[in-house]
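User: We ran a pulldown and think these components assemble together. Before we commit to crystallization trials, I'd like a predicted model of the whole complex to look at. Sequences follow.
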Amino acid sequence: MSSIDRRPPVRRYEHGSRVPGWDEAVDLTKPPATVPDPALTPVPEELRAAIEAEMAKYPDRKSASIPALHLAQRHHGWCSPEAIKQVACVMRLTPAYLTSVASFYDMFYLQPKPKHDVYVCTNITCSLLGADELYERMCEAAEGHDISVRGFECLGACDIGPMASVDGEYVGPLNLDDPKLIVEDIEAGRPVLEHKQLRRRAVADAKGRVDDFDGIAPVGQEGN
Amino acid sequence: MPRPEQKIIKLTIDGREVEAVQGTMLVDAAKAADVEIPYFCYEPKLGQPVGACRMCLVEIEGIPKLQTSCSTPVRDGMVVNTQVQRVKDAQNSVVEFLLVNHPLDCPVCDKGGECPLQDITFGWGKGRSRVIEPKRHFVKPLALSPLIAIDRERCILCYRCVRFSQEVAEDWQLIFTERGSHTFVGTHDGHPYVAPFSGNIIELCPVGALTSQPYRFRARPWDIEGAGGVCTLCPAQCNVEFTVRDDKVLRVLSRENPGVDDGWLCDKGRFAYQAIHVDERITTPLVRDGSGELRPASWEEAITAAGALGQHQGSVGALVGGQASNEEAFLIGRLLREGLASADIDSRPHGTVELGLTRALAAPKLQATVQDIEFAHTVLVLGTEPLDDAPILDLRIRKGVRRHGVKLAIASARPSALDPNAQLSIRYAPGAVVEFLSGLEWALTAPGSGETHELAQLLRDGGEDVVILWGESLPPAALAILLRIAEKLGLAEREGAGLLEIPAGANARGIREAGALPNAGPGYADTTTGRDAAEIAAATAAGDIRALYLFGVDPLRDLGARAEWQAALARAELVVAHAGVLTEGIAAHADVVFPAESSAEKEGTIVHPDGRLQRLRVAIKHPGQVRAGWQVIGELAKAVGLDLHVLTAGMAFKQLVAAVPFYAGLTLEQIGGRGVRWPETEAAAAMPAGTPAAQVAVTDVASGPRPEVNGHLAAGTYRSIWASPEVEISPALKFTVAEQLVELAPEDAARLGIEHGSTVQVAQNGTRLSGRAVIRTGVPAGSVFLATGIAKDSANALDELMVEVVKSR
Amino acid sequence: MPHLLFDRIDEPGLNTIPVYERRGGYSALRKALQMPPEAIVEELSQSGIRGRGGAGFKMGQKASFLPKGEMAKYLTCNADESEPGTFKDRELMQKSPHTLIEGIIITTYATGIHHAFIYIRGEYQLQADILDAAVAEAEAAGYLGENILGSGHSLKLVVHRGAGAYICGEETGLLDSLEGKRGNPRLKPPFPAIEGLYAGPTLVNNVETLGTVPTIINMGGADYAKIGTEGSTGTKLISVSGDVQRPGNYEIELGISSREIIYGLCGGPKPGRTVKMWFPGGSSSPVLLEQDLDLSYDFDTLAKAGSMLGSGAIIVVDDSHSAFEVMQKVVKFYAHESCGKCVPCREGTNWTNKFLARIEAGESTPMDLDILASVQSQIIGNCLCVLGDAMAMPVGSIVAKFRDELEAEIEAARERANALPLTDTEDLLALSAH
Ligand SMILES: Cc1cc2nc3c(=O)[nH]c(=O)nc-3n(C[C@H](O)[C@H](O)[C@H](O)COP(=O)(O)O)c2cc1C
Ligand code: SF4
Ligand code: SF4
Ligand code: FES
Ligand code: FES
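Assistant: Here's a predicted model for the assembly, 1467 residues in total across the polymer chains.
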């Protein structure tokens, strides 16, 4: 196994599952998990309203399941069984339906997780440019902080590889000293690595650029 | 909804021209032409093909890539190759891939010998594997539910089980979690997969991943035989195959019959076979001795004791339970009318229906079939909960809505499991169904607004093919209105439209046709009118009737008016019963008990609610001293001085056919394994005509639920799918035995300070029942629903509508 | 060469309507609304534009497959952009979201669609927020909503965020995901144009494809077709990354030489390094070599060379990296992203992944490369969607083109393993006996 498998990005069970329970029998004392009865399932009012607003956007309410799970994850910190049950109650679906959906997508956590998310891209381009070591450094730097570090597939920013998404903010190219700074920025509640944020980068194509752009030059074109 | 037309086309498979119905999937067309294409995930019963396993790839000329034959409908002129090298390579590949993670633990696998994966690996695999990498490992086997064990290593992720849960039962409890090769079958947060139809996934699984807890390791395929039969635990009468080893039923499988069950079974039908071989079952005759104890007796003793019925000529009341066969019901009618000079025989738990009306409602042209449900424009479910009363029809209704766009309407007092699928769900107050139907009849002709009018409009303008499923518990007054509504909608005039009664007893229809009614003889013939069940109770309690003959009925369990029946049973001088289990009333009051047959032992015929005669056949020998029902009735008749002339079950059938004009000409061979719907036969013309419904002036009446009155709630009743003695004594089903669940509206529960799951008392005129509160959104405020048919605290102890519900201290 | 999409895209404020309009934005929409819908489809056909998402299917033709008439039809813009190496849609959506929105409005007008979705990958939070704001702005300006600019055309546009799954870029996986399910691809036929979202006819197009529509309307299809080559008209946004000195997004005219892109625009590998291999169209495309650099960068030439233009994402690998390392990254990605629905892909990617682990552990022999290659060929063509092929084709090409190097790698790994005590083997045996 290659080095980056040593530290599992997300808590995984022996065969690789993120979902607890694969190696346990069901709990026969629990009732079957049917569509939760609204009278028996309290849902925080703002969460309910937000989910209902999402449902209203689509011809079929089920379409709102991913947006609703995002909302619930934000509200509860992770897609806990309780969070899923609340979404199920508002959407009139079974909790199992939503568990099935949530476990398909990488951004949903079915286990409690630290508050902050750092996705380090370890896909082809980034790894050609040193992402594996960066990932290890990031893990070390995050040790003891309320930060989850995951190796992620291509995040769609190979132009700034090796890169990471820090609570959604794309930063790169990162060097091996950056993980420490990222952690500091997170802890201080500051924007992360402002001078490396993708949102401020100019396009690489020369004809795309303008003189009054006040961002950062494209990678490799800092001189121009 | 018109059923699709069938057009025959020609195609070439492996160089041979074959015919097929246009639109058939290639894999099926090939099978019909004796070309076997292997497959795992394809199962048309589950809906659209998913194309997941890739086992069924074939070459179709003109298409560069191999195609999945499970998802390719045949077209005229199609040229298909299944034997070319490309196809073989693909098949080899898929088999090799399937085994990458499969444990190949066949020697210890319960599926061994009847496993599609074994067969296909042998038939279409290369015979060797190049995989030496470690496989994925799971702890195994694990409980998925009390009934099902799961072995995740063996799972090939074919989607069958999860599709069943999601697209057939629509319970959405069984899911795939995770993605890619991490995917596994599971449930939400460790909840068990407990649902009324869960057992079907065992049969669907093409590997040994899902196995039946009760059947695991009880037999190998070469130890067993299959015997066709019919389940008689409810009126749906699903076709089954008993797995028999050494004259023991070890398992029940479905035996697909599109006209009946579509190949599914509910868990009661699948697992309650255990009741056949448990100690609780009575397998010898019992006679009450001088000290008042029921003790085992010889047949001679028992028949002699029961023969004392003959001393009560003209004063015997008989009740026939829903599991009786047509022949048994017919012979009991003869015994009573010819041998005991009594007309007091009944099989209806909910009161007599006037004969003209009975005939009109049973008229051949007015009968909807099970398949009509699937293709109707509109289905109205009236006063019944299919999930409880005929579970498999719940699946058929869902299928109609899901696949064919059937518009579903529900009209009931109690919320229904089908409400989420319905276009319209109307709640009337418990006991107000007559008012509701009057309102509906009114709305069919008069303009107006409100849900009753919406329903009227749906029935009238939503397409001509309307099927109304109605529950037998509708009071007789409601039936007259129902008949008028059917006439107004012209249901008798359309092939695909009609009424379908969901009776209380499994063979209620056949029993009535065989003449077990107080006001009709065999074939709904006119007869001297006797007393119905309620009148028998009253007359017995009053001493007018001195002896009771109970064939598969325990009035304290199965009928209402519990107090009256208690008095009747106590007063009766002689109570003779046929029973499989000593339920309360039988245990306390029967003087003679004959051991009853199970449906796996019985020979005879029964009638499905849609008029289909079906055959029960002998799958196993009678255990213990049990004897055939027809034989016992014959011996009893002899003991009272009547020779019924039945020496075989076949002779009983012949007598029945001779007595029921609309069965004329039917033979057991014709009925065979699939059954025959008599309303479709020529003899149906011999059915006596009903009395047309009297036209009355109708007015609009309120029938909606009303809030509590002085703290009292209107009580409706229900009989859970799990309320049956067979369930109670089946070890595997112990976890789900029905108890008194008191269903309350959230508003009422809050007002009464009752918490979900807490113990409550239901009181009426000094009678108190204890039960567990279930707060259920959808129960209208002011209504409460109580269970009947259960062993303890049954709501049949309550005689009036209004009850008080209080917290238990 | 004209710059049609990237021209001064960095202009501050271009993501807002005032700046976008000042630069001529929404004029194509005004023009289009004066045209009969069929005429727009005709312009699209004439332009010859091929889909920019990966498959390269002609856009005009796809739009014409959609049944005519009033019914619930949908447009879904594929902004999932998860193919490794691809990041062009990101730049367009972030900096000029109205280009996409304008393209969507015109396309829906042309096809009689009143409900459109942008399915954007969940990781693109910034871009999704920008799109949300732009949609709100367009609604306020009357470009979205009922009776757009008095034309009678109405459109509801919803930005839908995904949650991290590559397979949701596959158009039918996307539709299932948008319906709120697991993003498993569907069997085709039926194709989305006949039965797609909510079982209604659905047009699925890439961000760049739809973003080019306003240009085509402004220029006229015939003039657009003059750019590029005959089979590959127009300009293309390409994402270049890996071992090049100036990585990033570029707009090129289709048909220029690949060398001009990799060396000319992007500066090639670091001095002293040479191109060892390159993926011309994302990680799913079979690799090409240094000797292929003079191939014209267009759909047909790359297909003829045994690879594909795909999403227009070039990943350059220089000679400092081993072929094994590249292959392993590719395989890990696809094994992680296989949706698991169909057997050859689920088990094939997973098996290949374990296979490479075995090579790395020094547990295999050069002969095993034959099995590796054969496993790839067993995947190709047998899967439900092409994700399986998307691993098997590049892996197959690497095994074929770097056989000697891989054999040497296997030998080296064996030596490494022998230098250590055989604990790894025992682990492996212990695991398989478990
Ligand atoms: C595994 C897989 C992933 C894909 N990912 C994307 C994607 O991220 N973005 C995209 O536009 N197309 C993607 N596609 C292609 C789409 O299926 C589809 O062809 C495309 O969205 C059509 O749009 P176009 O015709 O405008 O290119 C992917 C295809 C496959 C098989
Ligand atoms: S458990 Fe059985 S039926 Fe379910 S997916 Fe696995 S193999 Fe198929
Ligand atoms: S090829 Fe892979 S991604 Fe596509 S359906 Fe099959 S398993 Fe899913
Ligand atoms: S490979 Fe890292 S962002 Fe694409
Ligand atoms: S049976 Fe056709 S793909 Fe599974």
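The longest helix of chain A spans residues 45-56. That may be worth checking against your pulldown data before setting up trials.

User: Thanks, that helps.
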